[in-house]
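Discussion board: Methods & Data

I've been asked by a reviewer to show the raw model output for two of the constructs in my manuscript, not just the figures. I'm not sure how much to include, so I'm pasting the format here to get opinions. Each protein appears as its amino acid sequence followed by a line of discrete structure tokens. Is this the kind of thing reviewers expect to see in a supplement, or should I convert it first? Here is construct A:
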Amino acid sequence: MYQKILVAYDGSEGSTLALTKAVKLAQLTGATLEAIWVKSKLPHYPETVSEIEGEREAGEVFFNQLQNEMETYSRQLNCNIKLVALAGHTAKTILNHALEGYFDLIVLGHQGHSSLWGVSLGHTTDKVSENAHCSVLIVR
């Protein structure tokens, strides 16, 4: 069925639900599982060089936190999960990585915006599901 599964993970509740579902699918199908976190590119129009360094350091701290979470999930769920961090536009980066890595399933969490738009797909989820070369599972 599936041989390579890519799950978008940023530590949010939606991405954690997507990760849990992706792990179950990987275990059922014998697929390999990789998680991706996409950080935005620097600079964000900083006023000083130290602001760039501060953003870079904050990104590293956050990625280390995600790695620790991934190690915990790997142990708890008895599944090997590789976490990669790439910089760029979130949807484009996920799509490019999935294509280049020959993934046959992308798993994403659904993310509502507000009570009015809560039933809509999040921007990244919408863009990935519209443009993916492979199947996409959106987890609610």
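Construct B, same format:
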Amino acid sequence: MEETEHSNRFAKDNQSTDKVLAIIELLSCSKEPMRLIDISNQLNYNTSTTLRFLNSLERNGYVYKDRETLKYQMTYKLCGLASHISNRTGIVEIASGPMKQLSTNLGECVCLAVEQDYTVVYVHVADGPGQMLRTTQRIGSQAPMHCTGVGKVILSEFPESKIDEMIRLKGLTRYTSNTLVTKEMLLNELQLIRKRGYGYDNEECELGARCIAFPLRDYNGQIIAALSVTGPLGRMTDDFINSNFRTILEAVQDISYQLGYHS
């Protein structure tokens, strides 16, 4: 009997937490302060429950209630908390652990890259056991966007105007016979990446090397970086990628989740 009461109390507490978070998210996304009745209606809560949670948020400094209009809005307290988190944990700190584990499990190099001035910049790498990093994938190294897996994944979210500017500034240099050297070829590849959610470098930047790359998204759902698993063509076979796809995807989702992305 006591165990049942404890379970019921725990479930009720969880529901209350969910409701408070829903109120925070609603007010944070609202362009205007909101009335109690509107908050209740949008979330399908009764007004007494909504008022109780709003009073708690107001007492703790997260919500402000205008005494004339009786409307509620979020304060900047959450921004302060977010700033502390941002200052403490950058993307490299968040990604390094999952990357190291992934590299150990797969025995291949795992790379983290961002875009800067229409160029890929590698900001962190985890080398597989006994493997040697390619020169282009050392920390701080730069690489073209149009012929790398991470570069194409990041480009997949760019509007066509920015892709045109990238081509104008950087060109579509041929590095191997597999390099995409026309805008049409690149756009077709980016469309495929958007459809399936990941991309490849099939010996497009360097002969004998292949990678699979995934986007890393932040709390806005925007791609802010990309992660790739890369290795020699003889090891990065379709069978290897297929058998380890779930492992790679879970690491990517873990990093994006810590960056605030909830799909």
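Answer (T.O., handling editor elsewhere):
This is acceptable in a supplement if you add a one-line summary per construct. For B, something like: The domain at 2-81 is CATH 1.10.10.10 (Arc Repressor Mutant, subunit A).
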